[in-house]
Every structure is written in structure tokens, then in C-alpha cells.
Amino acid sequence: MPSTRRIDWIDAAKGVCILAVVLYHFNQIVFQQIDFGQTAIPALWNLLVTALKPLRMPLFFLISGFLASRSVTGRGWKEVRTSRVASLLWIYVLWVGVYWLFTESVIHPLDVEVVATGAHPETLGGMAMQLISADTGLWYLYALVLYFVTCKLLQPLKQPAILSIGLGVVLHLASSLWLPPGWWNIASLLDYFFFFALGCHLQPFLARHYVQCNIRRLLVTGALTGMALGVTWKLSAMEAPGVKLILALLMVSTTIDFFALLTERFRMVLLCDIGQRTLPIYVIHKLLIFALVMVMPETLYVEGTLGNGVLAVTPLVMTVLIGALCLLAYRALNHGPGRVLFTMPDLLRRAAYRTGLLQPSA
Which family is this sequence assigned to (predicted)? Predict the structure, then answer.
């Protein structure tokens, strides 16, 4: 039974992570762009979303590393080149192309202004540079490939766990100390390798010590998280070197224990189901958010208790709705020719097998 609980908290935590990503983008692209008058509710939501920043992607990458551990440490390159590298790169490149087409054919002709979409390349060279530099809204997929390959390359060396995790610390600190502020894409790649490496190489430790909730640890890390967030906010020190790393470790530990506790006591079927289908939500959700931008008002004043109540739950309701619509779109598209949107086409896969470039996964 412990293994069942472990899988449950992983899926539940992944479900929360992907919904937190949707919430972040909805808040950034839609909610914060509307003038709601004097109400403080949008500011409070922005504060909450900002407070979740040290948790959202670190936990996502830690779980990704946890799930990739066996492929890194126990399988050869031939067994993983397709599933862990080529397939993800296919989805990454394809969906960046989908977003480019949507921007070119819908956003630009309608003259819709969408914040935080990044540069829109006009040439194939520009798109290639954008793909390589991770200057896209789908950088997570690219990061997964880079992190996996890096851990795999370090595996034959002595003390690969120390090398990988140590490299992660160095890259994270380098991002804070030397990277120019506008290079968010490179910063993202540097910031989160540590958490992937941690999940990958400490998988036995995490599976052993976090298989069940430790109430004492949950209370301690929860209290430390609250105090650390308060001090960080008071001193405006979120971008100080090492601060996000410490906050993330505390928040990740607290969250894992919290979801281990929940999955021990409740059957969180819906959340676990979402956690098993994070890929379609990740690649589709921004298209739906961009569509919302095209119909949202620039100004929307709310009045009274009812209006403020509706406004207060709007980001949460929209996050769940967007996630549900993504899964419905996935169910509709993932048939016949539409399957190429979520997995490498069989024709391309077989051609790669014949040339020896790829090997069938074991």
C-alpha cells in the first residue's frame, strides 16, 4: 500500500502544479489587465500568485526528476532516446509552431494586444533561435530534455548525484548573480535544473521518507515557510541570491507532506486524474487564455458584496474551467491524425528507427 500512496501524492501534486501554471497565466494575461476600479481583490490575487512562485515550477521539476530517475540511472541511451528526448522535442517544436500560427493568423490580424507573449519571429532563423534559447511559452518541455540529457551525461562519472545537484546550485546562483534581468528564458533554464536533479538522484530518499505524511515535519516546514515568506516580503528580498532556493525547498517539502496527508485520508480522484494528464493542459491552456483576451473588457467595475464575491472566485473558477476545456480538447483531438499533436508520428518514428537515430523504447 505505500507505493499506492506515493503515486497518489505525486499525481495530486502534479495536478496542483499544472493548475497553478494555468492560474499564473490567467492572472498575468487576463485578470491583471482589467481595470476593476477600487477593489483590492486583483492585487490580493497577484500577491498570492507571486507567493506561489517559489513552489510552482520547483515542485513540478522535482516530480519530473523523480519520475525520470529510473531512465537516468538504470537505462541505456538506446532505451530512452525516443521517450525522454525525441518525443518531447517533437511536441515542443510542433506546439511552438502552433502558437506561431495562431499569433500570425488570429492575434495579429485582429490587432489584439496580449502581454507576456514574447517576441514573434518573422523568419525561420528567428524561430530556430527562439526554440534554442527557450524564449517561448513552452520552455518547460525544452527544459525537461536539457535536464534529462545533462543528468544522463553526468551519470557515468564518479558521484553523479553530487555533480548534478551541485551543478544545479551553481546554475541557480549564477542566474541570480550575473544574468541580466531581461533574460527570463535563460534564467528559467538555469533556476530549475537543481530541482530536477534533486528529484532524480534523491528518488530513493523521497520515496522512503515522504511515502507518508510526517506531521511534525509538515508543521515545522509550514511554520518556517510562513516566516520565510513574511521576511522575504518585508525585506523585498525575493530576488536575492539563494532566497528562492531556500523558499522553494521549504515549500516543496511542506506541499509534499500536505498532499501525502490528503491522499492518505481522501480519494482525490479528480486531482490525480489531472496530474496524470498535465501535458495537454500545458500545451493547450495558453491558446484558450489568448482567446479570452480577445473578448475581455478593458474596464469592469464591480460593486457590492456579491460583485466582490464573484470577482474573488473568478481566477479559481476560470483556472478549473480552462483545465477542463484543455482535457476536453485533448480527448477530441487525440484520435487519428490528431495524435501527432501529442506524440511523435509513427512514420517519423519508424524512419528514425531504420536509420538507427532512435531505438524502440524497452
Answer: Belongs to the acyltransferase 3 family.
**Nearest alpha-carbon partner for 324 in 15, 4, 91:** 15
Q: Is 20 helix (H, G, I), strand (E, B) or coil?
A: helix
Find the DSSP H helices in the chain: 2-29, 41-51, 53-74, 77-80, 87-102, 124-132, 139-154, 160-178, 184-201, 203-209, 215-235, 243-265, 269-275, 278-295, 304-333, 346-355
C-alpha cell recorded at residue 300: 469592469
For residue 223, being part of any structural domain is answered with no
Asked whether 118 and 136 are in contact (CB, 8 A), the reply is yes
Q: pTM here?
A: 0.91
Quote the distance between the C-alpha of residue 220 and its chain's center: 26
**Closest CA relative to residue 221, chosen from 246, 243, 244, 254:** 254
- What does the alpha-carbon distance between residue 340 and residue 345 come to, in Å, rounded to a whole number? 5
Euclidean distance between CA atoms 129 and 117, whole angstroms: 16
- Say whether 335 sits in a helix, a strand or coil: coil
Say if 248 falls within a structural domain. no
Distance, CA of 202 to CA of 210 (rounded, Å): 11
Sign of the alpha-carbon torsion through 253, 226, 24, 244: negative
Geometric angle at alpha carbon 30, from 90 and 62, rounded to 5°: 45
- Walk along the chain (362 residues) in steps of 10 and give the mean pLDDT of each run: 57 93 94 88 92 90 94 85 87 92 82 70 80 89 96 94 96 89 87 96 90 91 92 84 90 93 87 92 95 85 84 94 96 91 80 65 54
Closest CA to 239 of 187, 189, 168, 167: 187
- How many structural domains compose the chain? 1
Has residue 58 been placed in a domain?
yes
Residue 98 falls inside a structural domain: yes
Contact 84, 123 (CB under 8 A): no
State residue 250 phi and psi, 5-degree precision: -65, -45
Give the residue numbers spanning the domain of 108. Answer: 2-213+253-355
